[in-house]
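hi! just following up on the protien thing from before. the input was this:
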Amino acid sequence: MVSNFAFEADAQKRRAAQRSVRTRMEPTASLAAQLEMLERELHDPIVRKGSRASELLADDFPEFGRSGRSYSKTQVLEALSSESTEVITSSEYKLNLLSPTVALLTYRSQRKASAETFTLRSSVWRKHGSSWQMVFHQGTPTTVQP
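and the predicted 3d structure came back as:
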């Protein structure tokens, strides 16, 4: 039978380890700014039509679009290359560091042509060498304004 003292000591060690992991996993302001900048790059019509979009998306990248359809990297790049130059605005960025090399970025976007249509977006970014690549993206339609 385990004594209360041993049980309490184990519980204290677990709590300390959890605090340590939380502290190490908190995103830095500079990483949040970097990933927000990369995300906003993908909203730029020039980037969307050029080779930079391909560099930012991992080869095994999937997207679940706001339409509910699934897209591969190739399908996304084809769609972006023929897309209009509609302005996309985004706000309410939040970063959650899932590991030292994987981060979840969530935000809200709106296309200027669709004044009443907002999309909640989630992107998973993974560090690849010295740079970050998007490995997953999902858009969820919403009409709720901020």
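The chain has five helices and six strands.
Residues 19-24 have pLDDT under 50 and may be disordered.
cheers
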